[in-house]
Specification:
Blueprint lengths: L6 H8 L5 H21 L3 H17 L10 H23 L17 H16 L3 H12 L4 H8 L3 H17 L8
Length: about 180
């Protein structure tokens, strides 16, 4: 068995249920703290890593924190200190080079094919009965939830579910959409 690189983090992971107040704090304040972390980094993924590191440090120090009303300040300070440490370390680890590597070319789909597919899909949707078409448009084109669709149309959620299910079945059987399958 190998020794973990970060013993405090592995110790925190083994005692994850030791502090239910920490878990509830993270659930309640996580989005706000993530916004703070995003303001410190340019990359959203780096912000998530930064927040996770700061929360790990907070968890390890949880018993030593006397005033839990000041947790946001503690975590913000951990975010800032961690980001500063990363910045200092990265300054040494990253080196400028003369040539930038070219990103791999990702083949983009043909715009004409995409438009033909959209047209075929819209024609198939237009063949649906009015009520089913309205529900499909609200659910998938307007991106409303089933409950929101039901509210807009003045029907029950179950009606929306069954009508959308029947409509999708008809769309699956539509011969003009066979190339999509």
């Amino acid at each position: 068995m190998t020794t973990p690189v970060c013993t405090s983090a592995s110790k925190a992971a083994t005692h994850a249920s030791a502090y239910p107040s920490f878990a509830s704090y993270v659930r309640a304040r996580g989005p706000v703290l993530l916004r703070t972390a995003r303001s410190l980094t340019a990359n959203p993924c780096d912000a998530e890593d930064l927040l996770q590191t700061a929360l790990t440090k907070t968890y390890v120090a949880w018993e030593r924190i006397e005033d839990h009303r000041a947790l946001d300040g503690y975590v913000r300070r951990a975010l800032l200190n961690t980001r500063t440490s990363q910045w200092r370390k990265r300054k040494v680890d990253e080196f400028a080079c003369d040539e930038l590597p070219e990103p791999e070319a990702v083949p983009s789909p043909d715009p004409a094919e995409q438009q033909a597919l959209r047209d075929a899909m819209w024609c198939a949707v237009m063949k649906l009965p009015d009520r089913q078409r309205a529900m499909v448009v609200l659910r998938y084109y307007e991106d409303l939830s089933e409950a929101q669709t039901a509210e807009v149309l003045g029907v029950s959620v179950g009606t929306v579910k069954s009508a959308v299910s029947r409509a999708l079945g008809k769309l699956r059987e539509d011969p003009e959409l066979s190339p999509v399958r």
